[in-house]
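Internal tracking record. Fields below are filled automatically when a chain is submitted to the structure queue. Please do not edit lines marked as system-generated. If the sequence contains nonstandard residues, flag them in the REMARKS field before resubmitting.
Queue: standard
Priority: normal
Entity type: single polypeptide chain
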Amino acid sequence: MLMGELAKETGLSKDTIRFYEKLGLITAQERQAGSRIYKEFGEETVDRLKWINRGKVLGFTLNEIKPWLDVWQEGTLPQSELIALIEQKLIDIAEKIQQLSEIEADLTATLSRLRQQK
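SYSTEM-GENERATED OUTPUT FOLLOWS
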């Protein structure tokens, strides 16, 4: 399928698809038609893009998704590795929550001081 068809099928923009291809998350075959070169994507690309989106929804970055994409899609990721991956992600999320809580407390204190100075 061509890029426009893939974009329509997945709901992703052509720019996003190009970006994922540049990162090596998906691949395309080049096909020449006259003086133009078209990128043609296989049907498996739709599934691959769905797995990428699932990973993103779960909070994984593209860099985190990339090394696991094939084994996630194929279902060959050992359960122990999946558990370790999810546990690490939960630790990362807890750290981010802590950092955001500290930022929120600082901003709240600053706002309070500014309001009292009026």
